[in-house]
């Protein structure tokens, strides 16, 4: 689950991570009030920042410097309600519903600090770079020597000497060095205790006063661990998510929209990936990833059909079920019932294999529904190929 910048900063602040003071606003009046409050606390300049789940906000016009409360009002009027387009939102952009008003910081130098899981080493890794304020992927490609890493042994955790090495790698000295060490230690603690998959500060800045502060923050939480964090789960902003993916989640389906022309419905993530390969081999492109789980029934299948058919690019649907926990004849009955309830206007191919596969295929063949049934993967691929008109 992704968090907004202001939410990430609130969490980090609780763990003692030094963050830039700010107030979130959902209206121009709230933005003006926030700026006045910051001004009363000593702020003389402000930054108005769009809150969406995407990077590159500044390049898209979603981050503006304001030298007065009046300029905050002007920028808030322009940013709130705009459709912000960045390299991460895609051409459709994302509607800005919230903005963050922060106290502008005197930046002397920018750094990058990030924590994530290194799956190859099966350890968390902390990465730092003196090249902050730019995309870390660009730094990794063009100047990989500028990135320094420390892998954390899960049995002993982050040790102070590792944090000191990373702070040295950033070139920090004196007061800034001590603050940098504390910052890294606190950031890692926040990452671990919130079950994050990534905690990224870009940029981490050294101010003119020698302080080390996070002026931006990105945190993603492991969905599978949200049951341990009711407070964080309550931060979910469904407006930032694909509506069909939200609907799928409500039905217990794992769904990710893609750009292809063949919808697929499968039980099991591994089989879903293989099904997507089959579709490509047949000359098509998968329109989605959809895993109905190991206990598919008529209700979940029907919900799956409705979600897939919301995509206007879908020219055919391939249902690929391996009967293990759930019997194929039960799935076949569910498909038939769902097809009766949903107006399926594209060719439907159903491949059943495993427990009671023959019985399930017979039910499909004998039904009044226009369904192409298959048993072998090759057979399913050929029928998909024929359905989308690929020679």
Could you characterize what this model shows?
With 391 residues, this protein is of the alpha+beta class. The protein has helices spanning 5-14, 28-40, 69-79, 136-142, 160-169, 174-193, 230-233, 243-250, 269-281, 298-308, 328-341, 357-366, 377-387; strands at 22-25, 46-50, 63-66, 83-84, 94-95, 99-103, 107-118, 123-129, 147-152, 196-207, 212-214, 218-221, 254-257, 262-266, 288-291, 316-323, 348-354, 372-374. The strands form 5 sheets. Strands 7, 8, 9, 10, 11 and 12 form a 6-stranded antiparallel sheet that branches. Helix 2 packs antiparallel against helix 3, helix 5 packs across helix 6 (174-193) and helix 10 (298-308) packs across helix 11 (328-341). The longest helix is centred in the middle third of the chain and has 20 residues, at 174-193. The protein is elongated, with a radius of gyration of 26 Å.
What's the CATH superfamily of the largest domain, by name? Answer: ATP-grasp fold, B domain
Beta-strand percent range: 15-25%
The CATH topology of the largest domain is given as: D-amino Acid Aminotransferase, Chain A, domain 1
**Count of domain modules:** 3
